[in-house]
Amino acid sequence: MNEEKIENMLSQLIKMVGTMRSDQQEMKQDMQDMKQDYQEMKQDMLDMKQDQREMRQDMQEMKQDQKELHLKIEKLETKSEDRHQEIVARFKALENDHDFIWEKTARNERDLANIKRQINQ
Question: Nearest to residue 58, comparing CAs of 50, 74, 72, 44?
């Protein structure tokens, strides 16, 4: 009977060791999976950081482009205003010439009318 007890105990021990070994293998696999997940998460974080850096760079470039566009618009507005002033000045000169010509024409017409009256008298 003693031998049976020993065999039962050995059998139980073998089962326990087998179960523990199986649990240990599962734990090792779980740890490897967790390490793999951690590495993937770490890589994802690095990728996200790189994407953020690139986005910041793009934003800086867009800001620079925007500043350049504002400068160009200001230059165009200044140029447009200068041209407008030049055109207004030319129109004013034409208007003055037109008024002068009309005054001179009216004066000449009066003078001609006076001369005609004097000749007819």
Answer: 50
Distance (Å, rounded) from C-alpha 7 to C-alpha 94? 127
**Ramachandran assignment for 44, one of left (phi > 0), alpha (psi -120 to 50 degrees), beta (any other):** alpha
Task: For residue 19, give both structure tokens.
Answer: 């179960």
Separation of alpha carbons 69 and 64, rounded Å: 9
Calculate Rg over the CA atoms of the chain.
51
pLDDT in tens, 19-67: 999 999 999 999 999 999 999 999 999 999 999 999 999 999 999 999 9
In this structure, what token pair is assigned to residue 44? 């994802």
Q: How many CA atoms are closer than 13 Å to the CA of 83, on its beta-carbon side?
A: 6
Q: What is the token pair recorded at 20?
A: 């523990």
